[in-house]
Amino acid sequence: MAITDWPASERPREKLLKTGARNLSDAEILALFLRVGIKGKSAVDLARDLLQRFGTLTRLCSASAEEFAAFPGMGLAKYAQLQAATELARRALREELSNGSLFDSPTAVSEWLRLNLAHLEHEVFMVLLLNARHQLIDAVELFRGTLTQTSVYPREVVKLTLKANAAAVILAHNHPSGAAEPSAADRNLTVSLKQALATVDVQVLDHFIVAGNIDPLSFARMGLL
User: Fold this and answer.
1) C-alpha to C-alpha distance for 152 and 60, rounded to whole angstroms
2) Are 69 and 76 in contact (CB under 8 A)?
């Protein structure tokens, strides 16, 4: 059955306009992006098949052009549209972080980090540089490692903050394994960086671990800072 034959209250577009995008399922949101289905399948059916194939929205959005275009009904044009939509979300969130205090937008920080780090297959260590009003100056990918680990040098982090004239930082790295629990090395690194940055009067506000499609783990919320 085509979506146009569904009751109006069940159609994704009408549902979004009436109740808001937050109340739509992943498949319904994706169906609105796809707009049309393929022979024998509505856009919602096709969206469900895509989510089943890739597992999560994060993996779908980070799929290669070849992987995405190989799926029946998809192609390079739709892949380009999906990448543009994902990048639009990243830029909108970064704009929000740059224009206001990060403490006013904790959800935006988590979402931006997840969009940028959750899909990576190797570990990355990132530093968010903040001014005295805790507005984003820049976000720098400082170190890149292997599937399971990366090497972080406190001296390089200190040099970066001094060059940017930052008053505070938020640290972040990803766990490609999908396990967000901080390791002993993660805890020790946070202590070392906090001590090193304190010598130049730069405050560490938080350290996030991004793992899979779940909310990034916050050291501050866990009382680990």
Assistant:
1) 30
2) yes
Question: pTM, whole model, 2 decimals?
Answer: 0.70
The amino acid at 65: A
- Burial code (b: 16+ CB inside 10 Å, e: under 16) for 44-80 equals bbbbbbbbeebeebbbbbbbeeeebeebeebeeebbe
- Nearest in space to 208 (alpha carbons), one of 222, 194, 198: 222
What is the rounded CA–CA span in Å between residue 126 and residue 73? 37
Helices 26-34 and 76-99 pack at an angle, to 10 degrees, of 120
Q: Which token pair is 177?
A: 């394994």
pLDDT tens track, the chain, 225 positions: 556 556 656 778 888 888 888 888 888 888 888 888 788 888 888 899 999 998 888 788 878 899 999 998 888 988 998 889 888 888 887 787 777 776 666 777 888 888 888 888 889 999 999 999 888 899 999 888 755 556 788 999 999 999 999 999 999 999 988 888 898 989 999 999 999 999 999 999 999 999 877 889 999 988 988
Environment class of 113 (CB within 10 Å of its CB; exposed 0-12, middle 13-18, buried 19+): buried
**In which residue are the tokens 């098949």 written?**
49
Q: Yes or no: say if 139 and 98 are a contact pair by the CB < 8 Å rule.
A: no
